Amino acid sequence: MIKRNLLVMGLAVLLSACGFQLRGTGTTALQLKELDVSARNLYGDVVVQLTQTLKNSGVHVYTGAPYKLVLAREDETQRAASYAGAGRSAEYELTNVVKYEIHGIKDVLLLDDSVQSQKTFVHDGNNLIGSDQEAEQIRKEMRSDVVQKLMARLQQLTPEHLDELQAKADAAAKAQAEAEAAAQRVRDETPQQSPIEIPSR
Questions:
Q1: Buried b (16+ CB within 10 A) or exposed e, 113-132
Q2: pLDDT at 174
Q3: How far apart are CA 77 and CA 169, in angstroms?
Q4: How many domains in the chain?
Q5: What is the pLDDT of residues 98-149, one digit of tens each?
Q6: Domain of 32: which CATH number?
C-alpha cells in the first residue's frame, strides 16, 4: 500500500515537472493586472463568467482601466450534421464564436481576434424534453470553453506588448493626421481658378 502511494506521488511529481496539468487545474495568472471589460450585453452569460474568472485570477476589473477588453460579438449557430428521418434521432452541430477586441488609450483599437467552441449532440425525436436539456447543458459547456480560451489568449498578453501596440497605433494616427494637414495646406495655398467664360455669339 505504501509502495503504491509512493509510486503515485512519484508519477505526479514527474508529470508536474514536465509541465503536465489536469484540465481545469492549470494556473490562470495574467500579467495584465487591470482591465476594463465591455460587451453589448453586460449581463450575458459569457461576459459575466469571464469577468468573474478575471477577478478570481487577481485582475482588477473596473471602468477606466488602461486597457479595455471588448466582447464585440457573440454568434451561436446550429446546423444538422446528420438526418435520420421523421420522429427519429438527428445529430446537430453547435458553434459558438466570440469576437473580441483590445482597446488602449483614447479607445484606440490595438488588436482583434475571435475564439470559438464547437460541439455536437443527438436530438431524439422521441424524447424532446431530454434532448432540449442536453442541448442547453452543451451550450453552458461551450460558454465555459469559450471563456477558458479567452483567458488563455489574455495570458499571452503583457503590458509591454500592449504598450508597443499602443505606440504603433499612436504613430500611425500621428502620421495620418500630419498627412491630412499637409494635404489641407496644399489645398489652401493652391489658387482657385476662375471659371472660364465662353463668349456668347
A1: ebbebeeebebbeeeeeebe
A2: 87
A3: 34
A4: 1
A5: 999 999 988 999 999 999 999 988 876 666 677 778 888 999 999 999 999 9
A6: 3.30.160.150
